[in-house]
Specification:
The complex is a heterodimer of chains A (about 325) and B (about 300). Chain A is of the alpha/beta class. Chain A folds into 2 domains: about 15-180, Rossmann fold; about 195-320, Rossmann fold, CATH 3.40.50. Chain A has helices spanning about 20-35, 50-55, 70-80, 90-100, 100-110, 135-140, 155-165, 215-225, 245-255, 270-280, 300-305, 310-320; strands at about 15-20, 40, 60-65, 85-90, 115-120, 150, 170-175, 180, 195-200, 205-210, 230-235, 235-240, 255-265, 285-290. The longest helix of chain A has 15 residues, at about 20-35. The two termini of chain A are about 30 Å apart. With about 300 residues, chain B is an alpha/beta fold. Chain B has a single domain (about 5-285), classed as 3-Layer(aba) Sandwich (Rossmann fold). Helix content of chain B is about 40%, strand content about 10%. Classes of the chains: A alpha/beta (about 325), B alpha/beta (about 300). Chains A and B meet through helix 3 and helix 5 of A and helix 6 and helix 7 of B. Chain A: This is Transketolase-like pyrimidine-binding domain-containing protein.
Chain lengths: ~325, ~300
């Protein structure tokens, strides 16, 4: 499939770097013009989580709840019960972590159509430190029945994802990083919730991931093309899992490398393991935050130390291949 | 909405029938809460038979009053009252409470009975959802077309989430938005004022911009007139502190927190043995606490 990437997308210096949270924020503001029953809720993080694009355009449909994430969830549920389409927007640790049980009871269980849009997912949050670097949100959302979990790969995909979420049913989580990351897709790049994207074909190993990791994987595949043929899959939807696309790829390559800016416990890689271990067991290497609390630091320094930049991911991938 | 003395008598009798069905269904279920449902029986009766603007045969009618039950564990009294009020719940179905496959789950499940408005159970979450519904109503310019009621327990006033919603409702100055606290002074572990004091409850809500009223929740006429007055309050959420007696109507259950979370047949035995608890409860209800000699 031709995904219509940005020109010279593999050269990270020639493409733009923009934040997913900005894409999500702009996407919500654009969608607001079309959907009259769409409401956005903020919890005192309106500008930094980019809900302000919507709030400025549609102040009458923006609800400020203050620093009160449990109430953010309850109000969203109440709105959804009455047929509105609420977008609850704040930092990932507070949005998903603080009020997990209210999410479970008032939204997931009754299958209310509430869209959770985060910023500050993963280490790409930076100097605020581990309290604000949410690395358990995929685990917490995908373990709840009825949830759809989307982790866009870049700014443009985040913009498309928040719009696509409107037409789904039940609770939807759209996970966004705070930091600027490479924008390799365009607004014309096809995006379908639940449909994994084979961005590059290969035959020796399937390298999967979500978020900005996908870009590193594309670069690594290019850099290592003489040594190994890497198939790259953008697993932007963790739930529901695109089992067909995954299986087709794994039957060809016979092994998986998975990278994510998230705890390896319970994340997207775990989701793939759960599926493959029961259906088509193959050797798998999971790479991400290795079940630990990290630290403050610039995003670049964190990426380097925790091996989540391109070089770090490449090193782990290469080690996995060498030990096979 | 005022009420004639004859209708009051009819409703008092109805509340008693509801308590009788409650005792039977709880005993049959083998688990569930006695104290709260018995204490709220008069209120549910007054609401479903006089106060609520609703259509039992069209439970999702757009302009119905919304009744959000935050403390979902007292839902048996709602099931029974809805049965008596003509909703699609049969007498036989009441006896399926908490059993596999039943629509009458231990805590309200909106998938099974849409007329319940929300799925609930975990405490402290109802008022937030009522606030969300009130915002939706405001977006649609329907603030004067129906009333939103949220029933809460007193114990769940200890939840931080309740406080977040109290603050929000005060900010929004909702019209036709009425919270009601079942002030029965007990929670699972004991008396509220020992476990985690709630007083001064009235002043707390007032400080957040609410209009607060109190009532004797076992007097149908007072329930009706209090709600009537509450609906006349303009641009302020209203809290009704409903002074209830937990276990009301069954002497050995009244005001005893040990009856909060158990059905007849499983309660404390110092007054009545377990095997006789249902029989004794029904005898008391049928004779109105011994005031009349023979039950039906």
């Amino acid at each position: 499939m031709d995904y219509k990437f940005q020109k010279n997308y593999l050269d990270e210096k020639s493409i733009e770097w923009k934040a997913m949270r900005n894409g999500a924020g702009i996407g919500m503001a654009e969608l607001g013009a079309e959907k009259e029953n769409m409401v956005v809720l903020g919890a005192d993080t309106t500008e930094s989580s980019r809900a302000h694009y919507f709030a400025e355009k549609f102040p009458e449909r923006f609800i400020q709840v203050g620093v009160a994430e449990q109430n953010l969830i309850g109000i969203s549920a109440g709105l959804a019960y009455e047929g509105m389409v609420p977008y609850a927007v704040t930092y990932a640790p507070f949005l998903i972590g603080r009020a997990w049980e209210p999410i479970r009871t008032t939204i997931a269980y009754p299958n209310n159509h509430v869209i959770f849009v985060s910023s500050h997912a993963g280490l790409a949050t930076g100097p605020d430190g581990p309290t604000h670097q949410m690395t358990e949100d995929v685990t917490l959302t995908r373990t709840l029945p009825n949830f759809t979990v989307i982790c866009p790969a870049d700014y443009e995909q985040a913009r498309l994802a928040v719009k696509a979420a409107y037409d789904l049913k039940g609770p939807v989580y759209v996970r966004n990083a705070r930091e600027n990351t490479p924008v390799f897709t365009t607004e014309k790049t096809p995006f379908e919730v639940g449909k994994a994207q084979v961005l590059r074909e290969g035959k020796d190993i399937t390298a999967m991931g979500h978020g900005y990791m996908v870009y590193w994987l594309l670069q690594i595949a290019e850099e290592l093309k003489k040594e190994v043929s890497i198939e790259v899959i953008n697993l932007h939807t963790i739930k529901p899992l695109d089992e067909i696309t995954i299986l087709k790829s794994i039957k060809k390559t016979g092994r998986v490398f998975f990278a994510e800016d998230h705890n390896i416990v319970g994340g997207g890689g775990s989701a793939v393991c759960e599926f493959l271990s029961q259906n088509y067991p193959v050797p798998i290497k999971l790479h991400g935050v290795m079940d630990e609390f990290t630290e403050s630091g610039s995003v670049k320094d964190l990426w380097k130390k925790y091996k989540l930049d391109k070089e770090g991911v490449k090193e782990i991938l290469w080690k996995f291949l060498s030990n096979m | 909405m005022s009420i004639h003395s004859e209708k009051i008598k009819v409703l008092e009798k109805k509340a008693n029938e509801i308590r009788i069905d409650l005792m039977k269904m709880l005993e049959e279920a083998g688990s569930g809460h006695s104290g709260g449902p018995l204490g709220m029986a008069d209120i549910f009766t007054a609401f479903y038979f006089h106060i609520l603007n609703h259509r039992p045969r069209e439970p999702r009618w757009e302009k119905r009053d919304r009744l959000i039950l935050s403390n979902g564990h007292i839902v048996p009294v709602r099931y029974v009252t809805m049965h008596h009020a003509g909703y699609d719940i049969t007498k036989e179905e009441l006896m399926t409470l908490r059993k596999i496959g039943s629509r009458l789950e231990g805590h309200p499940n909106i998938h099974r009975i849409p007329a319940l408005e929300t799925t609930s159970g975990p405490l402290g979450e109802g008022l937030s959802q009522a606030c969300g519904m009130a915002m939706a109503r405001r977006f649609r310019n329907q603030e004067h077309e129906y009333t939103i009621y949220c029933f809460m327990s007193d114990g769940e006033q200890q939840e931080g989430m309740t406080l977040e919603a109290v603050m929000f409702a005060g900010k929004q100055k909702f019209d036709n938005f009425i919270g009601l606290i079942d002030r029965n002074n007990i929670q699972i572990d004991g008396f509220t004022e020992d476990i985690m004091p709630l007083e001064p409850l009235r002043e707390k809500y007032e400080a957040f911009g609410w209009h607060v009223m109190e009532m004797n929740a076992h007097n149908i006429a007072e329930i009706v007139s209090t709600v009537e007055e509450a609906k006349a309050v303009h641009q302020k959420p209203v809290l009704i502190i409903a002074h209830t007696i937990p276990g009301k109507g069954v002497d050995f259950m009244e005001d005893d927190y040990r009856w909060h979370g158990v059905p007849p047949g499983a309660g404390p035995e110092d007054e009545v043995k377990r095997k006789d608890q249902l029989k004794e409860a029904l005898r008391e209800l049928r004779t109105l606490g011994g005031k009349i000699e023979h039950g039906e």
